[in-house]
Model the fold of this input.
Amino acid sequence: MSVLIRGGTVVNADQSIRADVSCVDGQIVEVGPDLEAPSGAEVVDADGQYVMPGGIDPHTHMQLPFMGTVASEDFYTGTAAGLAGGTTCIIDFVIPNPQQPLIEAFQQWREWSEKAVSDYAFHVAVTWWDETVHADMGTLVHEHGVNSFKHFMAYKGAIMADDEILVNSFTRAWELGAIPTVHAENGELVWQLQRKLMGMGITGPEGHPQSRPPEVEGEAANRAIRIAQALKTPIYIVHVSCKDSLESIIRARNEGQRVFGEVLTGHLLIDDSVYLDPDFEVAAAHVMSPPFRPKDHQEALWRGLQSGSLQTTATDHCCFYAEQKAMGKDDFTKIPNGTGGVENRMEVLWNSGVRTGRLTMNEFVRATSTSAAQIFNMYPRKGLVAPGSDADLVVWDPESSKTISAKTHHQNVDYNIFEGMTVTGTPSHTISQGNLVYKQGELQVERGAGRYLHRPPFAPYFDAITKMRAATPPVSVNR
Ligand code: URP
Ligand code: ZN
Ligand code: ZN
Done:
């Protein structure tokens, strides 16, 4: 299919220009003024609109088996919902059970993801350690295009990685030129605080944030960053939700350490009062980890994004229906953790970021697409509107408004954490692999059209680190 986007303003992370964009066979072939339509091309009138790289959500969990149930959104519905919101690529997580071979889990996720309608990649979690994990990490990098490994410092008794696993895995990632990522919460503290709160009779969702205060996140983020520093590896902290972990990132970056931080749209906009809602369904729908925080943390996160201390925005899209959340009716520790948002990330960030003047349009593109493409080594194939890049694009109508609701969203879940929020600035068209897949409210997707993306190690972004590594090899550690 060929598409010509005519009359818009192309917005990249570095500049904005008035230009048409011509796409043939899945790629952008030309960006410039007054382009001829390729033969048979569908022409999109983008007058008064912005043409931007499709969003990349670097943190989703489609159909994740988790806490005794399975996330309701699968790779088909989830990637389709993403396209409706201008997100053309996700990076999901393969999460092996402890003792499960990493390659086996990876193959399982690859099977599940075959129905995806947009392009996707995988981070792979390291949830346990032995020599086979060490070997499988190599196979994943060299043969399967995985260049990022995830570590959950929380979820004790399930997928938690202790310091021994972190040190072994970060060291291996260093050898392979892959980047470690962490969910930073001190799992032991969470576990002990949960027991204490339950013992005090606090069994409802209000116990969730009480068992995971900001210090729990700050301690873990700082520990992971210091471990990375000792091992001379870059590190990426997922879902930074509070001042405590942000401060550790800022300190480390000021000291020259290569630390990246991700913020969720939910954490930027929703505060912890949601856990006091008398309706269990509403409070439980917001149970995710790390939890929503008091308002002053949100302001700090915005400043982190504005200043570049946080580089990416994500959703941690991990949906559970009310009946699934009800598993924790009498015990908040059993409420499946997770919320949604893959469809709403870009419009919510535009509305609250660009329209308020917190972010320029170019910074918006950087935060929703380009930075993730660069950090996870998909750039310039993704994250850029330029000849040779994939034709993954969103045509953005800055004047169009809508009110977000679970009644109208495409996400396969009965709740929307942004319910009732009116946003101005929404996608009018989404183009994925050169195909017009979303047009003025109508989705036209093909099951299985999404491609798995191989991401090579050693992003050019890490040249400085590579040089530093050559000069000073890491301290040796036992595996
Ligand atoms: O509550 C969350 N975030 N659920 C998904 C798993 C994770 O911790 O990212
Ligand atoms: Zn997490
Ligand atoms: Zn997550």
